[in-house]
C-alpha cells in the first residue's frame, strides 16, 4: 500500500509492504553517497540488506536507547559526513526506531542546511507515528526534543516484517500510539482495536494510524494548532517518562498519560483497550515531580499549557489552561 503526504514541495510517499526492505534501491535514489544511520539494537542483517543496495555508503551505528538522542551523537554523525566529504546532493538513511529517525533526520536537516533524508522505521511506534510528519529532534538537559527542526523525509519505507525481531514489550509500546490516534480521531478504528486482534492485520493498523497522522500534518505541518492533537497523552506521558529513569517505554508512558483529562466513559474504554494489549493503566504519581517536569517540557507556552482531551471516542478538544490550574488538577487525580 502506498500513502501520500501532500505538503506542496515537501510532499512524499510512504510504502507499506512486507519485504520492502529489499526494494530500497527501487524506491530511493541510491546512486550517490549515502550515510546509513542505525543503532546497536537493530539486527545487523537489516543494515546489510540496505547497504548492499547502495553503491557508495558509510554505516554509522549509534548506541541504542533514548539517552543517545543527544548532541554528542549529533556531532559524531556530522563529523562522519564532513570526514567523508558528503555534499548537498548526497543522502542519509535512518534505519531504526524513533531515536534513530529523530536524530538522523535532524542531522539531515542541519548538514549543509539540509540534505535528502530517507526513513526506514523498524519499531511499531516509528512505523505508525514518528517516521511521518517531519519532526526531528534531539534531547538536551533532560528536556525531550528541545532542539530540532521540521524536516520532511524524501520517502518512508515501512516493512512490517522487521517487527518479527522486535521485543513484545516494544511492540506493545507502539500499539499505544495507534490507540492514541484512534481515540482522538476515528471511533471505528478504536472499535477495531478493541474488538479485533491488532496483530492479525498489523498493516491495517499501521495504515489507519498513518492516515490520521497524515491528515493532521497536512492541515498543520508546523504545529500551529491542530497538530497538538497528536500530543494526546503526551503532557503527562512525557513527565512520567522523565521521572521513570528509563524503566518505562515511551508508549507505556503515553498510555498512562491518556488516562488524564478525559471523561469517565472514555477512561473506561481506554482502560479496556490498554489492558487488552498489555499496556499499563495505573501508576503512583508524585504530582509535584510531574508538575516540575511539565514546566520543563517545551509544551508549556508561557504560563499556559494546551491540554488535549477526548470527550468522546473519536473526537478531541484542545484547551489552554494556566499552569496554576494544572497544579490543582494534578493534585486531584
Ligand atoms: N518525530 C516524531 O514525530 C515522534 C513521535 C513519537 C515519538 N518520537 C520519538 O521516538 C522515540 C521512541 O522511538 P521507539 O519507540 O521507536 O524507540 P527506539 O528507537 O529507542 O527503539 C527501541 C529499541 O528497539 C530496538 N529496535 C528497533 N527496531 C528493531 C527491530 N526491528 N528489531 C529488534 N530491535 C529493534 C532499538 O535498538 C531500541 O533498542 C522517542 O525519542 C520519541 O521522542 C518521535
What does the model show?
With 333 residues, the chain is of the alpha/beta class. It has 2 domains: 2-165, Rossmann fold (3-Layer(aba) Sandwich), CATH 3.40.50.1970; 168-331, Dehydroquinate synthase-like - alpha domain (Dehydroquinate synthase-like, alpha domain). It contains 13 helices and 12 strands. The strands form 3 sheets. Strands 1-2-9-6-5-3-4 form a 7-stranded mixed sheet, with helices on both faces. The longest helix has 18 residues, at 168-185. The mean pLDDT is 94.
List the helices and strands and how they pair.
Blueprint: E1 2-5, E2 12-16, H1 24-27, E3 33-39, H2 44-51, E4 56-62, H3 71-83, E5 91-96, H4 98-110, E6 116-121, H5 124-130, E7 135-140, E8 143-150, E9 155-158, H6 168-185, H7 187-195, H8 202-219, H9 234-242, H10 250-258, H11 264-276, H12 287-296, E10 300-301, E11 304-309, E12 317-322, H13 323-331
Parallel strand pairs: 2-9, 3-4, 3-5, 5-6, 6-9
Antiparallel strand pairs: 1-2, 7-8, 10-11, 11-12
Helix pairs in contact: 3-4, 5-6, 5-8, 6-7, 6-8, 6-10, 9-10, 9-12, 12-13
The protein binds nicotinamide-adenine-dinucleotide (NAD).
Residues 39, 41-43, 64, 66, 69, 96-100, 102, 122-123, 125-126, 129-130, 133, 135, 144-145, 162, 165-166, 170, 173, 250 line the site of nicotinamide-adenine-dinucleotide.
Amino acid at each position: 500500500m502506498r500513502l501520500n503526504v501532500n505538503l506542496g514541495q515537501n510532499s512524499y510517499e510512504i510504502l507499506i509492504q512486507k519485504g520492502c526492505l529489499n526494494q530500497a534501491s527501487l524506491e530511493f535514489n541510491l546512486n550517490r553517497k549515502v550515510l546509513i544511520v542505525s543503532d546497536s539494537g537493530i539486527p545487523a542483517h537489516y543494515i546489510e540488506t540496505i547497504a548492499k543496495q547502495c553503491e557508495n555508503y558509510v554505516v554509522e551505528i549509534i548506541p541504542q536507547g533514548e539517552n543517545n538522542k543527544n548532541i554528542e551523537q549529533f556531532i559524531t554523525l556530522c563529523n562522519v559526513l564532513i570526514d567523508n566529504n558528503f555534499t548537498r546532493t548526497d543522502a542519509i538513511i535512518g534505519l531504526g526506531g524513533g531515536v534513530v529517525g529523530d536524530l538522523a533526520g535532524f542531522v539531515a536537516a542541519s548538514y549543509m542546511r539540509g540534505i535528502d533524508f530517507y526513513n526506514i522505521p523498524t519499531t511499531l511506534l516509528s512505523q505508525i507515528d514518528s517516521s511521518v510528519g517531519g519532526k526531528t529532534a534531539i534531547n538536551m538537559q533532560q528536556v525531550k526534543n528541545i532542539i530540532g527542526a521540521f524536516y520532511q523525509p524524501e520517502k518512508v519505507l515501512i516493512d512490517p516484517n522487521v517487527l518479527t525481531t522486535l521485543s513484545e514489550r516494544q511492540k506493545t509500546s507502539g500499539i499505544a500510539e495507534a490507540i492514541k490516534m484512534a481515540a482522538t480521531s476515528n471511533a471505528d478504528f478504536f472499535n477495531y482495536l478493541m474488538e479485533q486482534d491488532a496483530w492479525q492485520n498489523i498493516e491495517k493498523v499501521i495504515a489507519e494510524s498513518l492516515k490520521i497522522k497524515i491528515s493532521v500534518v497536512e492541515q498543520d505541518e508546523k504545529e500551529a494548532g491542530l497538530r497538538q492533537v497528536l500530543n494526546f497523552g503526551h503532557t503527562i506521558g512525557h513527565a512520567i517518562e522523565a521521572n521513570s529513569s528509563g524503566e518505562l517505554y515511551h508508549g507505556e508512558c503515553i498510555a498512562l498519560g491518556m488516562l488524564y483529562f478525559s471523561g469517565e466513559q472514555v477512561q473506561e474504554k481506554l482502560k479496556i483497550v490498554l489492558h487488552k494489549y498489555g499496556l499499563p493503566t495505573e501508576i503512583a504519581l508524585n504530582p509535584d515531580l510531574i508538575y516540575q517536569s511539565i514546566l520543563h517540557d517545551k509544551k508549556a507556552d508561557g504560563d499556559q499549557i494546551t491540554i488535549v482531551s477526548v470527550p468522546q471516542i473519536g473526537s478531541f478538544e484542545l484547551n489552554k489552561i494556566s499552569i496554576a490550574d494544572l497544579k490543582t488538577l494534578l493534585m486531584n487525580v
